[in-house]
Structure formats: C-alpha cells, structure tokens
Amino acid sequence: MKLFNNYILNKLFLMLLISAFLISGCAKATLTVRSPAEINTRKIKNVAVGGFEIGQMMLKFKTERNGVWQTHPVLLSEEQQKSISRSVRARVINLLTATPYFKVIFSDEFEKLANDAALQQLVSVRGYKTKNVDAVINGKLWLEIERTDGVDLSKEGLEYFRPPRSRNSIGLNLTVDQVVWWPYKSTRGTLGLEIKLTRLLPTEVVATTFETRTYSQRIGGRNGESFQQIADSLTSALATSDSSKIDSIESSADVLPSFEQIIADMALSIASGFVRRVAVTEKVVSYPIAEGSFPNAKILIEAGAYDLAIDQLQQATAENSDPNDLYNLGLCFEAIGDYGLAHTTYREAWKTDPENLLFAQGLGRIERLRRENPQLQRQLESR
C-alpha cells in the first residue's frame, strides 16, 4: 500500500511539473555556483566595515543659452557628503552579507573612524584588542560629475502643404529650411574608489584595490528618429507651428538619475570585484537544457528536480546513449555538485559530437569548476 501511494504521489508530481513546463515554455536549468576567493583570507571570519573617506568631490552644472555656456559649481554640504559616503559603505556591506564567507560585525567604533590614518592609529595602540573583529574594510573615494543642460541646433528642410487661397488657385507643396532647436540633458561622471582590507592582529593590509568607473547618459537632442517625429507633425501651416512642440524633452518620460544613484551604481561595480577577491561568492546562473530523447527529464531539470532527472536519464542513456541526454545528465550532476560524474558525462557527449557548442561549453565549464573546487573546499572548511 505504501509503495502504491508513493507511485501515485510521483505521478502527480510529474503531472504538475509538465503543466508548469507547458505554461513557462522556457528550457533552462538554474544553478547556484560558488567561486573561491582569489587571495588567502581563511583566518579572517568576522569583518567590520569602517568609513569611506571623501578625497575629492567635484560636481558642476553646465548650461547653454543662445550659444553662451555657463558652468556652475555644485557645493555639497558636509551632511550631503556624509550621505554619499554612507551610501558607498552600504553597498559594500550588502555585498559582504550576501556571501557565505564573512560575518559582518556592525561596530560604531570602526564606523566613526574618519579615514585610513585614524584606523591605523587605532590598531597601532599598544595593547589594543577586539574580541569580535578579525579585520576591517574601509576606503576612500574621488568623484567628478557634470550635468549639462544644452541645445543642439540644426538646419532642417521641412515639407508642408499650403492649401489653396481661393477656388481658382491650387495648393502648393513647399520645402522650407528652418533652424530647429533640440534641447537635451546629459550627465557624465567618474568615480575612483580605493578599498582596503586590514587584518587587526597582527596588523596587516591583506588586500587593496583602486579602480575607476565612468558613467554617461544623455536624453533629448538631435537624432534621426526625433527629427522624423517633428517633421511628421509639421506637415501643415509652418507659420502656425509652435517651437514649444519641438521642445519635447521637458515632457519626456526619460529621467536622468540622481547624483546619489550614479555614485552608488559605480561604487557597487568596483566593490563587487573587491569582494570576489577576498571572499567566497555565490551567483545564480542559467544554462540551456538540450533537446534530448527523454522529454520528461527536461521538465524535471527545469523544475530543479535533479535527483529524479538523474534516475530517468541514467536509465535512458544505458539503453541508448543519445549525446543530448548525456549532456543533460552532466548538467544534473553539475547542479548537485558531483563534478567528477559531470565531467565524465559531459566528455562522453562532447566526444560523440565535438562540433556541438553546447557540449563544449559544458565540458569547459566543469573543468574550471573542478580546478577551483579544492581551493573552495579548503576555504569553506576553515570557517
């Protein structure tokens, strides 16, 4: 009776998976992949995040009216600068808490340190001890952002139809050259960010990085698409056209991001690279599922039921070694972390069809994971 109930439950489960597959129509396997830290931080478990000093900050606003450019410096208050510093620090904390490697310690003692010199002075004090913190991450940033409010000018040939003025006259198709104003707004910026990981006992700079990121975005201005839209709207009575209709940027749905958002995005990009250097990181990836001869297995893989898919694919490949089924079997072994069996089945699929890009990608991917796995296991076992 118990075996019968299990059989019924498995059938119901499979029917639900088939229904979900037919609805989604997507054939990819979703895996969580861990990557080892690039440098040795095995003895560092608890990490505090200090302050991020502002080295230099240049913000300016440029406007152009009637061919005359004016530049206005934007002066930020001390509180606004602190807000930017806290925003960068928050991005680093979010990245660290997302890793399975470090435990982030929230400490006012380190957060209040104004700069790297203050941290070095603190840890250099004879007899200084901290029970909960092994290392501190802090940094320094340099920033330059420019906002522009300008106008592109162009000479355009606009066609319009002048209706007849009397019953005895005819209308005219005319082309008139007219100077068109194309207002635009733009933002461009550069962020330089230094991030440093300092071990407290013994005091040692374990890792440091300095990278820059640039940002540029523009909305409005002269382009072919916008000109065609304006030309289409001016096919009648040029004399009655209103230049405010051309100035569509003010009513545009496009919005330039704030200074704070630009800085946070650029800082996140740099901090992500630093965290990959010092910590085990996780990411979710999706890989294509091959069109094998056993469609139920494809449904099971997409649903994440890898053990059930392995049982069915092993039976299928024992009777008929379709290379697509072998690839899917390797994908299942990769998903559950059995890289040895994954390598064997990927290689069998690739040997059957060496020109298949999907098989070659699976084999190359698993060879990299096998090389990284010993280092990854040592780092995880040290926690």
Summarize this structure briefly.
By secondary structure, the protein is an alpha/beta fold. The chain contains 12 helices and 8 strands.
Structure in words:
The chain has 2 domains: 2-33 and 290-381, Tetratricopeptide repeat domain (Serine Threonine Protein Phosphatase 5, Tetratricopeptide repeat, Alpha Horseshoe), CATH 1.25.40.10; 46-279. Helix content is 43%, strand content 31%. The chain is built from 12 helices and 8 strands. It has helices at residues 2-24, 78-97, 108-111, 116-123, 224-233, 243-246, 259-278, 295-302, 306-319, 323-336, 339-352, 357-381, and strands at 28-35, 46-65, 68-73, 103-105, 135-162, 172-199, 204-220, 281-288. The strands form 2 sheets. Strands 2, 3, 4, 5, 6 and 7 form a 6-stranded mixed sheet that branches. Strands 1-8 form a two-stranded antiparallel ribbon. Strand 6 and strand 7 form a beta hairpin. Helix 8 runs antiparallel to helix 9 (306-319). The protein starts with a helix and ends with a helix.
Tell me the helix content.
40-55%
Largest sheet: 6 strands, mixed
Oligomer: single chain
Q: How many helices does DSSP assign?
A: 12
The mean pLDDT is 81
Report the radius of gyration as a whole number of Å.
31 Å
- Strand tally: 8
